[in-house]
Amino acid sequence: MKKIIIIAIIAFTTMQSFAQSPSEKGKSDINQTPENKITTFAYRLFPTDNMWTFIKLNTRNGQMWQVQYSISHDKRRIFPIE
Fold first, then answer.
1. What's the average model confidence in pLDDT over 14-19?
2. Which of 16, 32, 42, 79 is the 20 to 30 A CA-CA neighbour of 1?
3. Residue 9 to residues 3, 52, 82: CA-CA distances in angstroms?
4. Is 48 left (phi over 0), alpha (psi -120 to 50) or beta?
């Protein structure tokens, strides 16, 4: 009985020690989100709480615009953010 308990304790501690430390390959995959991989585009759109409004960012110089999207063409607007 003592041997079974000792083997079970050793087995569980071994499994737990491997489960707590992810491999280096796993760390690099987790840290690279799709936003970090996209670096060549000049403009990015960020959603806001309003579903018809976005923030457009020029990633090269930091300028921002408020973009109001609409289904009808005459209601689409872009305003610079100062």
1. 62
2. 16
3. 10, 58, 63
4. beta
